[in-house]
Amino acid sequence: MKLANDQDVTSIVMSEIDNVATLLKEVQAGESLQYVLNGNKFELTAKQPIPFGHKIAIKPIQPSEYVVKYGQVIGAAVVLISPGEHVHVHNIEGIRGRGDKKKGDKQS
Amino acid sequence: MTMIKGYRRPNGKVGIRNHLLIIPTVVCANHVANRIQQSVPDSVAIPHQHGCSQIGEDKDRTFNILAGMGKNPNVGAVLLVSLGCEVINAKELQEVIQQTGKPVEWIDIQDTGGTINAIQTGIKIAKQLSNDIQKIEEVDVPLSELILGVKCGGSDATSGLCSNPALGKAADVLLAQGGTIVMGETTEIIGAEHLVAQSAVSEEVAGKLYACVEKFEKEVERIGADMRGGNPSPGNIAGGLSTIEEKSLGCISKAGTAPLKDVLSFAEEIPGNGYYFMDSPGNDIECVSGMAAAGVHMVCFTTGRGTPTGNPIIPVIKITGNEHTAIKMSDNIDVDTSAVMKGKETIEEAGQRILETVIRAAQGELVKAEILGHQEFSISRISISL
């Protein structure tokens, strides 16, 4: 398996149902980047500077909507996240291991 | 068949290293144990914080880990250093380790008459033990004898994208050759446990796995905090990992695709060949120490951020998928898989390079953590000190 077979591909989407991509290089605000989904190449403009290895939204994610990477739920959005936005601890939260939330208060 | 080098112990088990291990039974004996170790080249010591003011499962854990370290086949002989009034029973510890057939000597600081006498007596005994184990000859053994721990620490986004999947490929090859893989870090399968459980050989094994995760999550609930910030750690977060679920989903690929044979308790002796999960903290040193005490020969440790972790008795191979870490921490990194991130190498090819490094280390080549002298060891706590 190859992660990226093209130097132009600057971010990677692990599964077709993901709503985030992982950056293979650091990008500046306004910089465009590419990802491959179902064999097609897509382009996206970063809205903020985003470090290497961090995530960028490739679809709009509504508040409380699941954030999906590897085709699996990695957390939930706490605000509306638009395509091109940095996705990280400032706008998503974990659902598991939340001792700070009372039992039954967890999102299902 | 791929062959490695080993030291056949009296109980038939094979070690890939031949250490003289000096074990303090209690924190009060650390200084004497360290001084003996410093005077006997090639010996290693495992100073720790525990051994007294402990009861119940905490006392058992300390005892089992110390016993497991002594029993690990990478250890050729053991010297126990006790104080004399602690909770850990040195005689019992000696008897348990002696069941392996290896020499186990014991000195007691109160009996011997204080620090100076204990150090002097200990050095004499340790020199003799060291001399004796040098005579044990290396033999060729099949790779199937190898018990490999898989661990990740100081993870970043590259861990889940390339170094862990590559390690998973190496794990698959080792298991196909009849070897053994042990994965730990219960906290770091939270959010991905359903995928690990899918590979379990039975409903019972899957149930054990879910029970381990539930126990940890209940403890986080009791503490009343969000586990984010502790795990994922500040370094994981700086590396792009936003939640424990994301980290876990990147973690689990390091064990490969084989069926999960069983779920073992912390530091429980590995019962046979195949793929096992050991219930353990995610904490690097506690997890690797638990693996060593369970009889693991070597650990493959992926790290995106870069961590120097070693162990006193088992080699810890460091693998990164982060090209910056590979350069900045080149003295710590054994295998760089970052070419996968650029599409210049396949995950299978990177996995093959990891396996080759494992085989060379199992044939006696020192890994970076051994060359640098990293010998971290710690015993996790369950309850309070009395």
TrEMBL record, chain A:
Coiled coil: none
Pfam family, one: SAF
Cited InterPro entries: SAF (IPR013974), SAF_UxaA/GarD (IPR044144), UxaA_altronate/galactarate_dh (IPR052172)
CDD domains, sorted: SAF_AH_GD
Listed Gene3D superfamilies: 2.30.130.110
The entry's keywords: Lyase
Taxonomy, superkingdom: Bacteria
Annotated SAF domain residues: 18-93
PANTHER family documented for this protein: ALTRONATE DEHYDRATASE, ALTRONATE/GALACTARATE DEHYDRATASE
The protein, known as: D-galactarate dehydratase
Species: Neobacillus kokaensis
UniProtKB/TrEMBL annotation, chain B:
Any GO molecular function: hydrolase activity
Record InterPro entries: GD_AH_C, GD_AH_second, UxaA_altronate/galactarate_dh
Keywords: Hydrolase, Lyase
Any single Pfam family the record assigns to this protein: GD_AH_second
Residue ranges annotated for the D-galactarate/Altronate dehydratase second domain, each copy included: 6-132
Record domain D-galactarate/Altronate dehydratase C-terminal: where: 143-382
Stated family: Belongs to the UxaA family.
Name of the protein: Carbohydrate hydrolase
Record organism: Neobacillus kokaensis
Lineage: Bacteria, Bacillati, Bacillota, Bacilli, Bacillales
